[in-house]
Design goal:
Layout (H helix, E strand, L loop, with lengths): L2 E4 L4 H13 L3 E2 L9 E4 L1 H6 L2 H9 L2 E4 H9 L39 E6 L2 E3 L2 E10 L8 E6 L5 E3 L2 E6 L2 E8 L5 E8 L9 E6 L5 H7 L2 H38 L9 H15 L17 H6 L1 E7 L6 H21 L3 E5 L7 H5 L3 H11 L2 E6 L17 H20 L11 H12 L6 E6 L20 H15 L5 E4 L2 H19 L8 H18 L5 H12 L6 E5 L5 H15 L4 E6 L9 H15 L5 H5 L13 H17 L6 E6 L24 E8 L3 H12 L4 E3 L5 H16 L5 H8 L7 H14 L5 H10 L3 H16 L6 H11 L6 H10 L11 H10 L4 E2 L6 E2 L2 H11 L3 H19 L6 H13 L3 H8 L2 H7 L5 H13 L4 H11 L8 H14 L3 H17 L3 H17 L3 H18 L4 H16 L3 H18 L5 H22 L1 H21 L5 H16 L3 H19 L4 H16 L3 H18 L5 H16 L3 H19 L4 H17 L61 H17 L7 H7 L4 H11 L1
Parallel strand pairs: 1-2, 1-3, 3-4, 6-13, 14-15, 14-16, 16-17, 17-18, 19-22, 19-23, 20-21, 21-22
Antiparallel strand pairs: 5-7, 7-11, 8-9, 8-12, 10-11, 12-13, 24-25
């Protein structure tokens, strides 16, 4: 069959020709693809041999004219022969012979098309409706039919019109008909006869059964229909956009072809299509009661955009335009943010390049931008702008002639798209823009004209006044006529006195317009507001994007595969991870409308970064998308809607993986794609960054795509965790030069309505910094705000001199400082510095604004409220509001602030003092609020106000709140700093408990228990024991059995840590007795049994330990399952026992068993607690010991390194557990003689022991001795001797010069010195020349040969049976000379002196718990 596509034909010709072709058996395709057989175009297009014509030659598509195709169809007969080639036909490359147009009966595939989805799911039984069909194997032809058929096949109705979009999507229209209400099948046939598999929809009578109508037209179905309809609208817009690009190319070709015009009216087609789209997408009227909850559809989202266009002459309106950008626009943007609107501003101050002027496209560009805008501001003073004079004689210079010629060409080109321009060919561009508004008369509510008072000229200096006056008398006449026409139009004309007055009036008018069109009372619900924010964020990411097909294909493959692990997009900040996910999701939804895509952008709103709210929103969106399934299916899943993210956080997280399994257990057939952008930006509340809530794998019906950054500390941890889970990953690379140039053009055009010339684009694209999209976008935004046409090149050059994005942000901050703080008050610096030194960010209204607006001693505030509001809006794009707190939107901005403003520690401390003062005032209202507990102690410590910090931390209410998991780490850090200043936490807290009056909200026994646990974390064991005993006394008096069990368990744990095993056994047995009294079986009872087994093991009572641990394991697995932390602890202890059995000589079987048990424990702890929990580090340490015993040093090192990272991240660099791991690593490196690595660990361990125990403690001295020995062995004798002498001086002062401890160091130094300097051997004796020994001739051996000439084998050895084994006598060698024996003896003595015994101090104690290498080899030999 013949499939025709049109090119360069006007809309009327296309409409008539389409009908003519379809009536004669052909079909029309709106997409120029491989299915097209003929391209109908103009003779001129064929002669120009453009892109489409070349494509025709390559793909064997016939390019013909309208006249040719009409003549051939008119003469068509079934037996027609091939027609000869005519002049107006272009032969293809493959076949240069004549091309024919044969409308033979179409050939269809043998498999009929199938319909998999039809929307809407319910339609009127009286007809007159449109259906969107999705399926497979739809083929474009005149025979294509769609029908509605009842279940019995007795009645059916054919559609009257179809609109083919692709082989998987078709839109069809059914005329009025009458069928009984009920279920019917929608079926399709390519040949009009053979109908394929259908899809069931419902015919209903809305007038007779309104309840039934409501039941079928659910919000979910309407939502899906709107989504699908919007997708088809997007396809149409894409086609029109392609046509518009074609027209622009044609206009350029026309200029090159000396003014030849292509008859193509894109503007008409665009308007017709837009009108059709508006008719197709009118939203249904809602009830008055439902107006408060606005449901945002895709079309309504497009309508919630304000795009402001400013029109004026450039030279005399610079001040007005500057005030618009810096004053008016920020205030309007804030108003739009509050009402969930999108605001964009078009300012063409330098947006028309020299290239556009020379190519005569500047007028066309301005008018197109004006049509895209929906709000207009026109400004006129006493200057008119350049225009063509009425007389050619007034044009004198060559420059003026070239400019006039460019304007004539511009008018000629623009007039083809805007015919009304023909009578304005002698007017300025400013008047043309204003005439476009005046003639439409459709924007009376959104357009304003501002006329400046002529007396303003008197305020201008005489030297500059010429720039504000009209160019000539002719221009003055045109300007007066324009002003008069504006005053007589329907649009308001407002007179202003000076630029500042204009800014006030413009702000007032635009605010009133926004208030009227988007009233404040018409607000969205919170869920709809959140959905709107995500949609707007995704739209901003897809507005300007350069797709890399290889990246799209990689994600496509992951989605099509059965990989249940999340897919990760990684790369440095600003590389384009979010944009890739947004644009891939948009494309995939268009290509696969049957898939359900749920997107979540973590950084798009304050609540989006809360992992609990994110999980709840995802489940609710999935539930909403499956409303068309059976109600019984929905009922099993709808309980999630009633859970609250505020009060039921843990239950939501626990329910998430179970809920997903239940989802697909209900035979859900749709494929779900979950996109989570910025997983590493999740707020770390409730230890969210451990990702225990994030499933390791998802059901087979869900594909999860996420992104993570890999250049910050906690984000690195997120990426490492995902890689450890073996998630597939794609790493993005910087942009190349071609991509940079395309991005520059598209971004400036879409975001700012501007254009750089080719030279400027290339200059930016060739810089290496612009390979980062964030740098490139920031640079373009900066020059749009700060550059004028005159200094544009200079601004670009300044931006490209910096090395990275942080340096570019320094320029941005400096420019903001100059523009908004001309009097040097320093308020801009203060805003950025206060945010930079804050602990977790600042609230804008309650904290930052209070500081900035606070009056000084003279009653003057640093900045006015209006200035602060304006500046806050201006810098809004530099800040993030994740969690409701103002922080910097990326690390580059924070680095720029640090480098520009906070180089001095005294300056930093001053800002810390300001914030400390602010939160001290807030403390009066609620001392235990999260903000006070998080910020106040942080700023007191950083500003060195240690007395105030001690006073705050010793408040009984603060202690009660901070001695918990949320603040315990920070509390330890604060007290470490205070102890360095001479404070003692035990003394201070004991004083507090003696003098304090307990408020009603604080229970004394509970507080004592919390303090005891805090002392335990601080390794203050004496204080912890006292507090536990006091708490036990209070609980005992209150007869609280379970609380007694809790304290006894803690005491048992403490005594076990201190090696008091007998006391630990007593406490733990009491704990178990309390649980038995309460009855039942609890997890606490299993934990007590596990701890009791640990104490038995440490007491070398292995049989008792195994018995109690196996009993605890059986209880845990039976009552609580295998996936809990207590089970992991039991497995860990059983692994340690197996390791001890291997040590006692039971063999390598116990080693393998120990490794298996520890690996199980590690897997459970990583699953339950997260890969970065300190408990995981404990198991890794023990597992490393087993690897060392098995000579697997690489595996041991990997375990130790991971354990060290975990403990540093979670416990801090100065924690005793970090010291423990470092000691293990020292021993591991010593065994491998990796002295340099061991020295590094010693240095880090020395720093910790100095902090924890003091520089003169025995622990610190032991590390120093060990480090000295390692230095010596590494060949660094000077450093080794210094370390040993330093250790000796400390022990001399502590134990005395003659003590055994000092003698031990002296012996070590002596041994090392002796080993490194052995006595030189005596010189060898003079060599005595001796004659060579005589050569004695050996007798020849007779070889016996057989008959065949082959030597015979030797005879067999005699039998040894019954005979004694004869020993072969080896003749003694001749005695060596006496001088040689003396030399060998001296060398032997020297070697013996080099065998020095190395005192490894505590390394010997650690190695004692491991199996010796020789003994291990003997055991393995026995096993073999």
């Amino acid at each position: 069959g013949c499939v025709v596509n049109f090119f360069s034909l006007n809309s009327s010709d296309k409409a008539s020709l389409s009908k003519f072709i379809c009536d004669n058996g052909g079909s029309v395709s709106y997409i120029f693809g491989k299915s097209v057989t003929h391209l109908v175009t103009t003779q001129q297009a064929i002669q120009e041999n453009g892109y489409k014509i070349q494509r025709c030659k390559q793909d064997n598509i016939k390019a013909v004219t309208e006249k040719w195709i009409r003549s051939k169809i008119s003469r068509y007969s079934p037996a027609v022969e091939k027609l000869p080639t005519e002049n107006n036909e272009v032969p293809s490359r493959k076949d240069s012979s004549a091309l024919s147009l044969e409308f033979a009966p179409p050939q269809f595939s043998q498999t009929p098309p199938s319909v998999s989805l039809a929307l809407p799911a319910s339609v009127s039984h009286a007809g007159d409706f449109t259906l969107a069909l999705f399926g497979l194997q739809f083929e474009p032809s005149a025979s294509f039919k769609v029908r509605l058929c009842d279940k019995q096949g007795a009645q059916f109705v054919l559609c009257s019109r179809t609109e083919y979009h692709s082989s998987t999507s078709v839109v069809c229209y059914f005329p009025k008909f009458l069928m009984p209400p009920g279920p019917v099948d929608v079926q399709a046939a390519n040949d009009g006869k053979t109908f394929g598999v259908g899809y069931e929809i419902s015919l209903i009578d809305p007038m007779a059964s309104p309840l039934m109508y409501l039941q079928h037209t659910t919000p979910a179905a309407d939502r899906q229909f709107n989504i699908m309809r919007s997708q088809l609208e997007n396809v149409r817009r894409t086609v029109l956009h392609v046509q518009q690009i074609e027209q622009e190319l044609a206009l350029k070709l026309e200029y090159l072809a000396n003014g030849k015009v292509l008859p193509y009216d894109t503007n008409v087609a665009i308007r017709e299509s837009n009108n059709a789209l508006q008719e197709a997408s009118n939203p249904e009227q809602q009830e008055e009661a439902d107006k408060k909850d606005i449901v945002i559809t895709n079309q309504q989202l497009l309508d919630r955009e304000i795009r402001l266009f400013i029109s004026s002459p450039f030279i005399d309106m610079q001040k007005e335009r500057d005030l618009l950008v810096k004053i008016v626009v920020p205030q309007l943007r804030r108003m739009c943010v509050e009402r969930d609107l999108i605001f964009n501003f078009v300012d063409l101050r330098w947006g028309i390049t020299d290239a556009q002027t020379s190519q005569a496209t500047m007028i066309l560009m301005c008018l197109r931008e004006l049509q895209r805008s929906n709000v207009f501001l026109g400004c006129l003073g006493e200057r008119y702008g350049f225009s063509l004079p009425s007389s050619e004689k007034s044009i004198c210079s060559m420059e003026e002639k070239e400019r006039a010629e460019a304007f004539r060409r511009a008018f000629k080109l623009a007039a083809k798209e805007f015919p009304w321009l023909s009578k304005y060919s002698d007017r300025s561009i400013t008047e043309i823009e204003m005439q476009e508004i005046i003639r439409e008369e459709l924007r009376s509510e959104s357009s304003w004209f501002f006329l400046r008072d002529p007396y303003y000229l008197e305020e201008i200096p005489e030297a500059q006044r010429a720039q504000y006056k009209c160019e000539n008398e002719e221009s003055a006449t045109k300007l007066e006529a324009l002003k008069e026409e504006i005053e007589h139009s329907i649009y308001p004309s407002i007179t202003y006195k000076r630029p500042a007055h204009f800014a006030d009036l413009a702000t007032e008018e635009l605010r009133a317009y926004i208030d009227k069109k988007y009233p404040q009372d018409e607000i969205m619900s919170e869920s709809e507001r959140e959905k709107f924010r995500h949609q707007v964020y995704a739209r901003s990411l897809s507005s300007v994007y350069l797709p890399d097909e290889s990246e799209f294909v990689t994600i496509d493959k992951v989605v099509m595969d059965n990989n249940e692990s999340p897919f990760v997009v990684s790369g440095p900040t600003g590389i384009g991870k979010s944009a890739l996910l947004a644009n891939w999701a948009k494309r995939h939804q268009n290509h696969h409308p049957e898939d359900i895509i749920i997107t979540h952008w973590v950084t798009c709103s304050p609540s989006a970064s809360d992992h609990v709210r994110m999980v709840h929103r995802i489940m609710c969106d999935i539930l909403e998308s499956i409303q068309h399934y059976d109600s019984s299916v929905i009922a099993t899943l709808s309980d999630i809607k009633f859970l609250s993210p505020e009060t039921q956080r843990k239950r939501i997280l626990d329910e998430f993986p179970v809920w997903l399994e239940r989802l697909f257990a209900n035979k859900i057939t749709n494929r779900f794609i979950l996109v989570i952008d910025g997983l590493d930006c999740i707020d770390d509340r409730d230890n969210a960054l451990d990702f225990t809530w994030f499933p390791r794998s998802f059901p087979s019906g869900i594909r999860v795509l996420t992104s993570a950054t890999d250049n910050t500390v906690h984000r690195n941890l997120t990426l490492k965790l995902l890689r450890k889970r073996k998630c597939p990953e794609i790493q993005l690379s910087p942009l190349n030069i071609g991509q940079k140039k395309s991005f520059i053009t598209q971004y400036l055009q879409h975001k700012h309505g501007k254009k750089l010339d080719e030279r400027q684009e290339l200059r930016i694209a060739e810089s290496h910094q612009s390979g980062n999209p964030r740098f490139l976008q920031t640079l373009l935004d900066e020059i749009c705000v700060a550059a004028t046409h005159e200094n544009l090149d200079d601004r670009i050059g300044v931006g490209l001199k910096v090395k990275n994005t942080a340096g570019l942000y320094e320029l941005v901050l400096s420019r903001i400082d100059e523009d908004y703080d001309s009097t040097r008050k320093g308020f801009i610096k203060s805003i950025f510095c206060l945010i930079a030194v804050s602990h977790n960010g600042l609230h804008c209204a309650d904290e930052l604004s209070l500081l900035m607006l606070r009056p000084d001693s003279q009653g003057n505030s640093q900045v006015s409220e209006e200035e602060f509001s304006t500046l806050y809006l201006l810098i809004g794009n530099l800040l993030s509001t994740a969690g409701g707190l103002l922080t910097f939107s990326n690390e580059d901005i924070e680095t720029a602030v640090e480098s520009l403003y906070l180089k001095s520690s005294s300056v930093r401390q001053s800002y810390h003092r300001q914030l400390a003062s602010l939160f001290t005032e807030s403390m009066q209202d609620n001392i235990t609020s999260d903000r006070v507990l998080s910020e106040l102690p942080w700023h007191l410590e950083k500003s060195a106000q240690f007395d105030k910090l001690t006073e705050f931390l010793c408040d009984i209410r603060v202690v009660d709140q901070m001695c918990n998991e949320t603040y315990s780490f920070e509390l330890r850090q604060y007290w470490r700093a205070l102890e360095a200043m001479g404070k003692n936490v035990e003394v201070e807290y004991v004083k507090m408990l003696h003098r304090a009056q307990f408020p009603p909200s604080v229970v004394r026994a509970d507080l004592l228990f919390k303090v005891a646990n805090f002392f335990l974390d601080m390794t203050k064991y004496d204080g912890a024991e006292k507090m536990f005993l006091l708490a036990r006394t209070h609980y005992e008096n209150s007869s609280s059995t379970l609380n007694l069990a809790k304290v006894d368990y803690a005491l048992g744990n403490l005594y076990s840590l201190r090696g008091k095993h007998n006391q630990a056994l007593v406490c733990l047995k009491r704990c178990l007795q309390c649980h038995k009294q309460e009855g039942g079986e609890s997890i606490e009872q299993a934990m007590a049994m596990e701890r009791l087994g640990t104490v038995y093991m440490n007491s070398r009572k292995m049989n008792e330990s195994k018995a109690i641990l196996n009993e605890a394991l059986e209880l845990c697995e039976r009552k609580f399952g295998t996936n809990n932390n207590t089970t992991a602890d039991i497995l860990y202890n059983l692994g340690c026992i197996a390791f001890a059995d291997a040590k006692s000589g039971c063999g390598g079987v116990d080693q393998l068993k120990a490794e298996e048990l520890l690996r199980k424990s590690l897997d459970i702890k990583a699953t339950v607690l997260g890969d970065w929990h300190p408990e995981v580090a404990r198991v890794l340490n023990r597992l490393a010991s087993i690897f060392i015993e098995q000579n697997q040093f690489n595996d041991a090192e990997a375990c130790y390194e991971q354990a060290l990272l975990i403990r540093i991240e979670k416990l801090g660099k100065q924690h005793s557990r970090v010291l423990q791991t470092l000691k293990h690593m020292i021993s591991c490196y010593e065994m491998q003689e990796k002295n340099i690595e061991a020295i590094d660990c010693c240095m880090r361990a020395k720093e910790i022991t100095d902090v924890l125990f003091g520089e003169r403690s025995d622990e610190s001295v032991s590390i120093a001795i060990r480090m000295g020995i390692l230095y010596w062995l590494a060949g660094k004798k000077k450093e080794g001797l210094e370390a040993l002498i330093g250790a000796k001086s400390i022990r001399s002062a502590t134990f005395g010069k003659d003590s055994a401890q000092v003698k031990e160091i002296d012996d070590t130094i002596a041994d090392l010195s002796g080993a490194s300097n052995p006595p030189p051997p005596p010189p060898p004796p003079p060599m005595v020349s001796m004659p060579p020994p005589p050569i004695v001739a050996q007798p020849l051996v007779q070889i016996e040969v057989g008959a065949d000439g082959i030597p015979l084998p030797p005879p067999p050895p005699p039998s040894s049976k019954g005979k004694k084994k004869q020993q072969t006598k080896i003749p003694k060698a001749a005695a060596p000379p006496v001088e040689l024996l003396h030399i060998l003896q001296q060398q032997k003595q020297g070697l013996q002196k080099q065998q020095v015994f190395h005192d490894r101090s505590d390394a010997k104690a650690q190695a004692a718990c491991m199996l010796g290498i020789q003994k291990r080899k003997m055991v393995l030999k026995k096993l073999k």
